[in-house]
Amino acid sequence: MSGNGRHVSVLRNEVVVALAPSNGEKFVDGTFGAGGYARALLDAAKCSVFGFDRDPDAITRAGALTSRYGDRLTLITGRFGNMEELLRARQVTAVDGVALDLGMSSDQIDEAERGFSFQKDGPLDMRMELAGPSAADVLNSYSEGALDQIIWTLGEERKARALARAIVAARATAPLMRTGDLAEICARVVGGHHDGLHPATRTFQALRIYVNDELGELARGLAAAERLLKPGGRLAVVSFHSLEDRIVKRFLAERSGHVPRASRHTPSMGSPAPGSFALKTRKAITPSAAEIARNPRARSAKLRAAVRTSAPALPFDPVKSGLLVEVRQ
Fold first, then answer.
1. What is the C-alpha separation between 182 and 117, in angstroms, rounded?
2. Domain boundaries, the chain
3. pLDDT at 64
4. Rounded Cα gap, residues 299 and 145, in angstroms
5. Confidence at residue 97, expressed as pLDDT on a 0 to 100 scale
6. 175-179, long-range: CB within 8 Å, 24+ apart, which pairs?
7. Domains 12-106+214-308 and 130-211 belong to one CATH topology
8. d(CA 159, CA 325)
9. Rg (CA), the chain
10. Distance (Å, whole) CA 105 – CA 10
């Protein structure tokens, strides 16, 4: 939970169990946020944690935690996909555990000026790093076909084509600059709530993922964790929707030798390469009913955990694996 009491780390106890911290070990909290996982690890053992966050506001808010834990907590402004280089600059070349929480921070969602939420009117920003092209830049400059692809692929929105057409028509009159304007278009085109979701949910999700390259960042982060973890090191990843979980599941399946052949009649290609991870559980761990009751934002969370073996790291191309789709503007 953050200092203002809003953000609650999902599956926190389960993540600590999966990472099993011991005295003297080094951990990466790749998505520091309000510091929930980092604090739980630091309280569980006399270990040290490197907390990464691409959002500079998150690092600024963490002053009290650095005072509490001293040199056991090191905060780094940057993407977890770059954790390898950022740690090497601090003479750290291997760690004992990596935690990644892929969900949005409640602090970000609840701050209207960040533009992540359709429930509060604010600028169409959505940039975690407060730098680079914003959601408004994408909506007002990309072709109808590109917008259709983003909303369909990253939001899994069935009415993506109609939404893209409506966005292009609306911006011909005036640029789309406010979250309320986009939410209104979604409500008009998509209609009422579907599957319990607000009509703007999937479109806002798609734009946020695209603006921040979240799926590409996830793929880079998983590969970096594989290279950084010592033999016996632990990886714990909490995802919140199917696109994220699909990448994590596929990555760990490939690395642990659990990718099935296309057919039982497909001939074997010899002995498979040794796996670089061993799965802690075959199925994802999900929140208890009690946790969901306390924190409804936990309802879609899935935790996947694995242990690093001594096998060498392997290349991982999520585009070739069919997990990432490149959008053409």
1. 11
2. 12-106+214-308, 130-211
3. 80
4. 33
5. 98
6. 175/136, 175/140, 176/124, 176/136, 176/139, 176/140, 177/123, 177/124, 177/136, 178/121, 178/122, 178/123, 178/124, 179/112, 179/115, 179/117, 179/118, 179/120, 179/121, 179/122, 179/123, 179/124, 179/204
7. no
8. 19
9. 20
10. 11
Q: Which string of DSSP letters, residue by residue, matches 90-106?
A: TT---EEEEEEE-SPPH
Q: Nearest-CA neighbor of 190 among 200, 182, 181?
A: 200
- Tell me if 33 sits within 8 A of 15, measured CB to CB: no
Cα separation, 228 vs 26, in Å, equals 11
Contact 140, 124 (CB under 8 A): no
Contact 282, 253 (CB under 8 A): no
- Rounded to the nearest 5 percent, the helix, strand and coil shares of the chain are 45, 15, 40
User: What are 147's two structure tokens?
Assistant: 């917008």
Handedness of CA 28, 298, 277, 213 (dihedral sign): negative
User: Which residue matches tokens 């096998």?
Assistant: 311
Half-sphere exposure of 140 (CA within 13 A, CB side): 15
Q: Which amino acid is at 147?
A: L
**Average pLDDT per block of 10 residues along the chain, 329 residues long:** 54 97 98 93 98 89 86 95 97 98 72 77 91 95 96 94 98 96 95 78 94 93 97 97 92 85 44 83 95 91 98 82 68
Listing DSSP states for 264-275 in one string gives TTSPP-SSPPPP
Report the distance separating Cα 38 and Cα 32, nearest Å.
7
Residue with tokens 């490939």: 254
Q: What is the pLDDT of residue 120?
A: 82
Question: CA torsion, points 82, 88, 93, 98, in degrees to nearest 10?
Answer: -30
CATH classification (class only), 12-106+214-308: alpha beta
Superfamily for 130-211? Putative methyltransferase TM0872, insert domain (1.10.150.170)
DSSP letter at 229?
E
- Note the pLDDT of residue 279: 97
Question: Residue 52 forms beta bridges with which residues?
Answer: 76
